[in-house]
Design brief:
The structure is a homotetramer.
Chain A: E1 5-10, H1 14-26, E2 30-36, H2 40-50, E3 55-56, H3 59-65, E4 70-73, H4 80-89, E5 93-96, H5 104-117, E6 121-123, H6 131-141, E7 148-156, H7 163-166, H8 168-171, H9 173-177, H10 180-190, E8 194-202, E9 219-226, E10 231-237, E11 245-252, E12 255-259, E13 267-270, E14 277-279, H11 285-288, H12 290-306, H13 314-333, E15 337-338, H14 339-343
Parallel strand pairs in A: 1-2, 1-4, 2-3, 4-5, 5-6, 7-10
Antiparallel strand pairs in A: 7-11, 8-9, 8-15, 9-10, 11-12
Helix pairs in contact in A: 1-12, 4-5, 5-13, 10-13
Amino acid sequence: MKSPVRICMIGAGRVGKNHTRAICHHIPGGKVVALVDPMTEVRQETALEFGIENQYDTLEIALENVEFEAVVITTPTPTHLPLAALAAQNKKHVFLEKPMALNLLECDAIIKVAGHYGVLLQLGFMRRFDPEFVAAAQRIEAGEIGQPMMIKSNTHGPGLPPPWARDLRTSNGMLAEVNSHDWDTTRWLMGSNIKRVYTEVANFKGAANNVNVPHFYDNVLVNLKFESGGLGLISGVCPCGYGYDARAEIIGDKGIMQIGELKGQSVVVCTNRDQGLITPIFRTWPERFEWAYINELEHFVTCIQDEKPPRAGGVEGRFAVAGVLAGTKSFLEERPVYLKEILGE
Amino acid sequence: MKSPVRICMIGAGRVGKNHTRAICHHIPGGKVVALVDPMTEVRQETALEFGIENQYDTLEIALENVEFEAVVITTPTPTHLPLAALAAQNKKHVFLEKPMALNLLECDAIIKVAGHYGVLLQLGFMRRFDPEFVAAAQRIEAGEIGQPMMIKSNTHGPGLPPPWARDLRTSNGMLAEVNSHDWDTTRWLMGSNIKRVYTEVANFKGAANNVNVPHFYDNVLVNLKFESGGLGLISGVCPCGYGYDARAEIIGDKGIMQIGELKGQSVVVCTNRDQGLITPIFRTWPERFEWAYINELEHFVTCIQDEKPPRAGGVEGRFAVAGVLAGTKSFLEERPVYLKEILGE
Amino acid sequence: MKSPVRICMIGAGRVGKNHTRAICHHIPGGKVVALVDPMTEVRQETALEFGIENQYDTLEIALENVEFEAVVITTPTPTHLPLAALAAQNKKHVFLEKPMALNLLECDAIIKVAGHYGVLLQLGFMRRFDPEFVAAAQRIEAGEIGQPMMIKSNTHGPGLPPPWARDLRTSNGMLAEVNSHDWDTTRWLMGSNIKRVYTEVANFKGAANNVNVPHFYDNVLVNLKFESGGLGLISGVCPCGYGYDARAEIIGDKGIMQIGELKGQSVVVCTNRDQGLITPIFRTWPERFEWAYINELEHFVTCIQDEKPPRAGGVEGRFAVAGVLAGTKSFLEERPVYLKEILGE
Amino acid sequence: MKSPVRICMIGAGRVGKNHTRAICHHIPGGKVVALVDPMTEVRQETALEFGIENQYDTLEIALENVEFEAVVITTPTPTHLPLAALAAQNKKHVFLEKPMALNLLECDAIIKVAGHYGVLLQLGFMRRFDPEFVAAAQRIEAGEIGQPMMIKSNTHGPGLPPPWARDLRTSNGMLAEVNSHDWDTTRWLMGSNIKRVYTEVANFKGAANNVNVPHFYDNVLVNLKFESGGLGLISGVCPCGYGYDARAEIIGDKGIMQIGELKGQSVVVCTNRDQGLITPIFRTWPERFEWAYINELEHFVTCIQDEKPPRAGGVEGRFAVAGVLAGTKSFLEERPVYLKEILGE
């Protein structure tokens, strides 16, 4: 049996805690040896919950004090490039949360530094590790529904994102922070790059939530045209209040496929015939994608042990960022935007 | 186009009103020409709603005053024999609600009088006319799930039955008044007569509902052994409060089939992620079996016009009554009871 | 009881036959007294099936030979104006299938002539009479999901439309012939007019189906921006092969609502664990909207008897045509199109 | 962080492999240090798959050669007592698969020896650790559906059990080997012991499968009467071919609750409208109860580390065996059997 991969977690917030839990509770192949976060309170809480002794303010200090082979970066997007670069320069493999970066220059820099120092780079596109999405992708690949003609993919989340994540200037907004997965998933399942996008946005709850940043939106619909000729839709609503909702529907020339559903746990109750049946919904993303998070981190650990490239890497991260930029440009300029305007090809 | 069949409705209560509505609103081939019910208030309300001019206290008076070809009898079980006999003697075709009668002697008398006077006799087993049950039966017949090995059939109803319908002495209780359909459906779908039954009953709500009749029960499970060797279950809960619930599940040696579901209308709502998704349930039997009621009465009308025997007649009604009697004897004597003890064969 | 409304059916094709069946079998308040269609074979087949004695090549001849109060027009779109006008001029109430007409001038002419002669005009927007859509609309209106922010509505049909219905010049294509209902439904459920649309189309099956008309498409996604600020999506796929698929999903600021589902009849079968569960899908539109068709025609008959305006009239038909024209202009010109460009306001 | 619990797996067959996988892949708190099985081939295959170096023919040899704190016993039922006793005498904590034993004397002996040597004893009732069953139990306990009146619980499995497991003399047959969970689950969720049972069995596939042991059955329905007055049903079909099917439905005086469903993965496909929608079913028990198996073994490890008694122990195992014996006696003697006849109280 291979010895566990020693991992330094960078970021102790919601996603960091989720990934720490996955590794500590369900991935014997990985071992969390340090936790980095400048926010002392959050860091201590997470460290306490999972019994992590080594805690540091910065990755620099961690590198000086503890041995590890890999980092898992879950900090805000603007920090991705500097942290990934520092890790790579110190020969640490990098697991990087989505979105990869704020722009393509940063994406390119991350890809380059990882390549230069020969470390693995995996992006946090956990839907590629969700048992349902994986099975669906294999069945589409096998031709079960024929050539994909149309895809609809949605991510609706219950809560208002933090301030940095709703400001276009610091995060590229909801299309990046909430819908990154949809950009990757639609491209993956359609088997084609996006050619052109058109975006409509709406702001229904900003005022009530005291959000005053320019161009804020909490509803978005993006119309996609793929290079294959296929069509697509990305839908985002955040905050939506009613739950965490991530589904996809693909129509091929031979048939339709639906992935996921609103319903969570199969426990149905009815106590009042005027109200009707009640079934749990997925309340949060950790509930919906529990296995996906375990599987993606297990994959990361296994890739390190086996010295194999991860399934979702820098290229996938870069295409998703390009989509975000085109989608944002579209609603700002009220016109369809070609991906080549962004990619510069 | 054939001229409409003139029909005298006997019984203006819930079932009578339901059948009157089906004929008046959705069956151009039938025409309600009279309504009989000794309860003046109920009768006038139903007559008013559907614009029926001829109203009478008794079938005798109706026979003297208005021309018709058929009757639809929806009165309490003890009245079935005298009303069906009088109708038959006057050459009126008979649609008779379930249960057919209180005992086999009455069943035999009804079958005999209808045969003697050459009138059609149809029993109100509307599940045999429900699109889902009909499709299921045809698919089982075609061998889709192989030889039926096991069936589970349930009827759970929301409200407490009227006093006469919960007293064994006047109605044979819930097994007759609520579960008559299950006796017929299980025999129909299994393609076999019942050989032996064992019944357990429970009384959870009687006291709270001030029901003091002997042997009252509001929960029942009947274990069935068919002559084919197959097994079965009939389940009854009434009042159950949560809605109207009638489903069946059949397992053959090649597979499983489920008929019906708890869910009613496909309108799903979620406004609170802690509560979850809410979907309508069937509140009442008219909602669940809307098409079945229309179809069975249309079938009755068409059989009269075409002079053909109806699909569910006296034989089916008699077998269901035999099941009720065996099932009741079983829990009273706390032992399995053979159908031949009842049928005397 | 009111005497039945005498109706002349104009059009004996699939929709005409469907409406004739609804009236003859399930609407005692209406009476089909004549059938008009220049295609002798189709007409005779429909007439024979429903026992209609009076058959004519044209409405003119029918008007000379039989008495009736209303017409039901189900002929191709280009004939709508002349037929509706002739009927109105002869004081016949008009039930007109969707789409209302090819352009707004025709819509205006139909509205004007009906108004001038004082006849009722009802459009065949049967989703407004579907029990699920009706319940959904009432619940949205009652505020159950708050202010509508986003709607997705789709109509995917199994078969290739006839030649005239896939040529933009004779029919406005799929957006008109298949998606007319979505234009009406989204406006109805959002409680707002559409402000701007952007359309992407794809042609995946045209070549294989020998369809060579210019601008043919068999997949379409329309992005909608409503005057309320809300967003919308109309999705069309035809032919899709896999079944008839019409669903809607609305997200309000308080929650989500889903109307309809892929699943048809509740009969689930599994005979092979490697294949999985099999559930019927709706094969065709008459299966999915059986009650909607009965209800809309019953409504038409009742409106005539009670001299009340129908729920879906010329205004609704005109808005749907405007949407079709804007949606078509959008993909032809590859840009977002404002409804005011079409409506000229 | 506590050091991992060292575990010796006893049994390398299907269940043994499943539990080994759960521990090796997803439970960092446990460490498989040895594998015991006299069947060399099966043992080596499992050892190879999970990289287990220490392999032995018997527990005796394992005890002499390797250090461990606990055993997981997944061997055939007749071996449970001797293996559990030997483990306990050597101060090893015992995780024991269901059914606990062949009779109550063996159950009592296991409970006694574990108590005498102060080791923990956990039974493999994994449904008590399934997220859906756990949530359901908590909600019932909290009164959500009121007092439980009726429960239906089924376990249908796809394949023919091995010879020893279908012979009443060596295993107590299907009621023990397949339905053990239902005996435990019904008692747990109803919050009451069983008072009386009545069983019907059928043998539909024995001949085709060349099963000639006396009293073989492949279909069973057990009617339960609880001490609380409630009713219950246990249903077993094995082999059923169509998949692994374990669901429960509980009706309380305030409402109904359904736990689990036939449907597995949420990937729905339709490519043929005449066939309909296809959804995966659970093919096997490891698929259906993946989390339950992980959770129950994690619970075992945690109980050892924290020195706390497991949630499902000897008492639960003994009651399930008593149910099996009463259920078997009932169909052999064709009469209802009281649990006190078995328990001797």
